[in-house]
Amino acid sequence: MKIAYIIPALGMAHSALATVNAGPYNSAYAKYCGSGQSRGTVTIDQTVFSYVCDTGNSAISKAPISVRSLDICADLCESDGACDKAVWFRDNGNCWLSTPGSDTHAPGQIAITRDRTAKPSPDPNHIQTVPPVCNNTNSRQVTRVSGQGWFLACGTRFGVTRPNQVGKVESLERCIDTCNQRPGCRSVMWNRDDRYCYVTDKNSLEKEVTQNASIDAAIKIE
Q1: Which ranges of the chain does DSSP label H, i.e. alpha helix?
Q2: What percent of the chain has pLDDT over 70?
Q3: C-alpha dihedral, 158 to 163 to 168 to 169, nearest 10°
Q4: Do the domains spanning 7-115 and 142-220 agree at the CATH topology level?
């Protein structure tokens, strides 16, 4: 499943130049390049990418897209059939796709390269995910929104006392992403009829759960 909700960067294309300043995505950077790790691999939808830490690229062909982690940048490259190389930058989340130049030393940047020959190792614990859409009111499946795992409970109303109404949104996916952006938010309900989104910091399975064909719900996998 492709990861949604990227934030397009504005303005002219910038070259992927080095900087020594630590940025707001330090934890995402440390996941791949922490504790002295200098390189590795990341797998996106059966596509393997190798990566090299503190490495940029001397040239780019597209304007950057701001994303919150290396795996989302790799997912964007995987979705672009012409993309074999990309660079993600810790300082501002910039993801440069289809970088045609040569590798350069660049603290805080991570260069990734698609390996079109490698086959990912089977993961016995892998859970197949589905898009965050309720086509069946009895569906109970796992989805991902902005990289976060969620358990879908379609056609379900949680017995939450006074959940927070955050306004109308166009889909359950948008409602889930609203919760993703709120610290401590753990579950959501979205009304198909009036499109109101409700979020709460409660684990809604701890309360009464009832069937309701007009409401789709989801619980964050923690």
Answers
A1: 26-33, 70-79, 172-180
A2: 80
A3: -60
A4: yes
